[in-house]
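Structure first, sequence second, as always.
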């Protein structure tokens, strides 16, 4: 089972495949199966040409595994991972010369 534990859209700056990206979807994803849990930080940069343009692109998707082990979802673990999520997303984004503007959310956060 895969669950987006947390996600939020932000203003961003990136370019991928010659296309300027001005939005980013930032996610904390949990995947559980057969007594194992895995948490992943992910970001997808998308064009965001208009205020209501949230068409996420999958050619500018970056992710990394934050935790993997036995067990199940834990609110305490998820809280700790969320606290470190901006730093991990910044690290991933720097790899392609992109930036998420954390002080400019495009909508409310969503929790799953």
């Amino acid at each position: 089972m895969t669950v987006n534990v947390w996600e939020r859209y932000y203003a961003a700056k990136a370019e991928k495949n010659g296309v300027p990206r001005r939005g980013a979807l930032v996610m904390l994803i949990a995947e559980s199966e057969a007594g194992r849990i895995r948490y992943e930080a992910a970001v997808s940069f998308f064009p965001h040409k208009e205020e209501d343009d949230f068409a996420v692109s999958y050619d500018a998707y970056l992710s990394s595994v934050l935790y993997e082990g036995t067990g199940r979802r834990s609110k305490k673990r998820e809280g700790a991972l969320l606290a470190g999520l901006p730093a991990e997303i910044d690290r991933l984004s720097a790899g392609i010369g992109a930036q998420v503007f954390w002080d400019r959310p495009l909508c409310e956060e969503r929790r799953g």
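Margin note: Residues 51 and 106 are 9 Å apart (CA to CA).
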